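Following up on my earlier thread - several people asked me to post the actual chain instead of describing it. Fair enough. Here it is, all 344 residues.
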Amino acid sequence: MADVTIDRATLEAFTREAFEKAGMPAADAAVEAEVLIWANLRGVDSHGVQRIPMYLDFIEKGWMNPRPDIRVVKESDAVLFMDADRGFGPVPTVRAMHAVIDKARNVGIGWALIRDVTHQGAMGYYSEMAAAQGMAGMAIVSSPPNMAPFGARAAGLHNSPIAYSFPAGRHRPITLDMATSVAAGGKLDVASDKRIPIPTGWALAADGSPTTDPDAARILLPAGGAKGSGLALVFQCLTSLMANSPLIVPVLRGGERVHLQNSVVAAIDIGFFIGLDEYRELLDETIDELKALPKADGHEEILMPGEPEQRMLEARTRAGIPLPPGTVDKLRETARRLDLTSPV
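Reply from S.P.:
Thanks for posting it. Predicted structure:
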């Protein structure tokens, strides 16, 4: 079966309707749908609509709360501590990002720690919210263990993703959105949906042996060995431990592995340090000089972080979003499950 191409509006409307049917308020369902489609449009299909059935399963298990009581635990001029009550990740995270942007306007920086949130989608969505306001943005997340620490063959850390965004002038913002593993966990699901193997070095099977079967893969491997492993531990220190919501030790001591996350989002007012227009010009010049460097063998150009995703956005906005066979099956099953009309 070949990929099925669908336009953004149809896919987003179905996604929004699905989450409303699952119990989310209309405004929250719209936020959730926007974040998932944002990822699909940019080719980050690992964090797009293929996640919908998983989210529905998590609702049934009580791991995701479609109607959370999101509350501020503690707040200062620069810092926010939020309890998300297991809400769908994008809903409290967008709220927190708006708050830290406002704080950064007032005092130069805003930092929010979000406790007990659930899957937040592509973290670059949130860092780019700050860049759109002329600020530097950051977003980090940590979850229960799914990645082997350097030197181990069992899961002991989470492959904590992190995203940074910086506003440019003539160029698109720089957005680095990456996991601390060689490949994001969702890419295994995409490979499964496409019914293709994963590269050697991405993951291990449950017994700690190497595998190229995405359906057998259970343990991710850290990017850069000790470097990715070290960053993942640092992000645990900044999120779960600081939120007093440890997610690693309980699992390693034999507790149930449930879906839960803790996160940080932050915004920095560039204008506190340098004129924003001057900063944009300096970043543009930096990008120009990097792109003008001699090309390595096999490379026709030098791409900046976020540039491939921006080009994919332009292409998919014009031509639609291709969905692999497994994702099509998931959407059709979602439609049956919720008594909706399938979009594909």
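The chain has a mean pLDDT of 97. That should answer part of your original question.
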